[in-house]
């Protein structure tokens, strides 16, 4: 029963991507629309990060997870290697949880 929605979403995604390739040279967007699309992508990404950082299920995730994400974000902003960012964020979260910070 769940195969139908998966196929519909897969077909829609393929059509959306294929349509973009076909219409790339036929449609020109104004600079204002391009700026709005770029801003929309950033807002969507920030909302995704905030939701996955601050909530676990329907409740607050606790302080250890946002602290780990903050450490990872700071290291990424300072242009640390990706492996260092991931390990430091995970270690921060794990150590805070080990210390009893929820």
Tell me what the structure shows:
Keywords: Membrane, Transmembrane, Transmembrane helix. The chain crosses the membrane at residues 6-24, 36-54, 60-77, 82-100. With 102 residues, the protein is mostly helical. It folds into 2 domains: 1-46, no CATH class; 62-102. It has helices spanning 3-23, 31-54, 64-77, 82-98; strands at 55-56, 59-60. A hairpin with a 2-residue loop joins strand 1 and strand 2. The chain is extended and about 55 Å long. The two termini are 39 Å apart.
Q: What layout of secondary structure does this protein have?
A:
Elements: H1 3-23, H2 31-54, E1 55-56, E2 59-60, H3 64-77, H4 82-98
Antiparallel strand pairs: 1-2
Helix pairs in contact: 3-4
Organism: Actinokineospora globicatena
Protein name: Branched-chain amino acid transport protein (AzlD)
Transmembrane segments: 6-24, 36-54, 60-77, 82-100
Determine the structural class based on helices, strands and strand pairing.
mainly alpha
- How does the overall form come out from the CA principal axes? extended
The end-to-end span amounts to 39 Å
Q: Can you tell me the number of structural domains?
A: 2
Our estimate of the beta-strand percent is under 5%
- The pLDDT mean sits at 92
Task: Provide a count of the helices.
Answer: 4
| Helix content percent band | over 70%
Described by strand count, sense and barrel closure, the largest sheet is: 2 strands, antiparallel
Oligomer state of the chains in this structure: single chain
Tags for this model:
single chain, mainly alpha, 2 domains, extended
């Amino acid at each position: 029963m769940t195969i139908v929605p998966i196929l519909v979403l897969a077909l829609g995604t393929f059509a959306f991507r294929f349509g973009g390739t076909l219409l790339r040279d036929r449609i020109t967007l104004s600079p204002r629309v391009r700026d709005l699309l770029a801003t929309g992508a950033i807002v969507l990404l920030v909302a995704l990060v905030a939701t996955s950082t601050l909530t676990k299920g329907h409740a607050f995730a606790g302080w250890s997870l946002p602290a780990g994400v903050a450490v990872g974000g700071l290291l990424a902003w300072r242009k640390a290697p990706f492996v260092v960012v991931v390990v430091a964020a995970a270690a921060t979260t794990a150590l805070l949880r080990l210390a009893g910070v929820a």
